[in-house]
Amino acid sequence: MNELFRNLGFSTTSTTVTSSTATSIGENCPVNPLIGDIVDIGNFRLRLELLIAEGGFGYVFQAKEIKTNKIYAIKRMISSDNESKNEIENEIDILERIQTHKHIMEFYGYTIIKPNIYYLLWYVFFEFMKTLSFNLNLFLSSEHCGSGSLKDFKLPIQDKQLLNRIIFQVTLALEKLHLMNIIHRDIKIENILIDSNGFLKLCDFGSATDKSYKPDHHWTPMQRSLLEDE
Question: So which residues are the catalytic ones?
C-alpha cells in the first residue's frame, strides 16, 4: 500500500479501502448480463470482465484487451431521446479535445454497437464516428485506474501535507482544462481516481462544457433559470 500511494503520501496505517463502495473491484461486484461480451473499439478487441459502477449515465466495466491482456475501463451509455443523444455527443466532443495529461483520464475512442448503444474506451482507443443515429447505445473507453476513487479511501484529514498534494494534482488537471476553455462542472471525490502509480486522475466529463456566460444585472430570473438547467 505504501508503494501504491507513494505519490500521494498514503500509508497503510492511515488509509484503508472501504468495502461498500459501488466502484470496488472484487467478488462482491454486481453481476451484469453483458459480462463476457466482446467489444471492438478501433483496432482493439476487448472482453467485458467486471461491472465497476452503474448509475443514471449507464455502466462502467473493467475490460481486457484480448491481444495484449491490458486492462481498460469501458463506459456504456444508452441514448433514448434527442436530449440524451446531445449530452453524449457533447461528452465525446469534449473528450476528443482534451490533450494527454498526467492527471486526466486518457480517452482513446468510442464505438456504436447498435443504433442506441455507445461504448467509450479509456486507456487504448480512439476511433471517431461522427454519424450518430437517433438512438445511441455507446461504449466509451478509457484508462483504467484500478485503485478506485478518493471516495473509496478514508483520508487522514489532519494530514495537511497529503491534502495539499491532492489539491495540487487536481488543480493541475483543472488548469489544463481551463487552458483549453473546458469547464468540468462536476468536481467531486467520486470523479477523482487513483491509478496504480498513486497519481490522481480527473474523470467523468458528462457535465463538462466549453460555453461561458457573464450574467449581469440585466439578466431576468428566467434567463438565469434556463442557464442553471443547461
Answer: 186
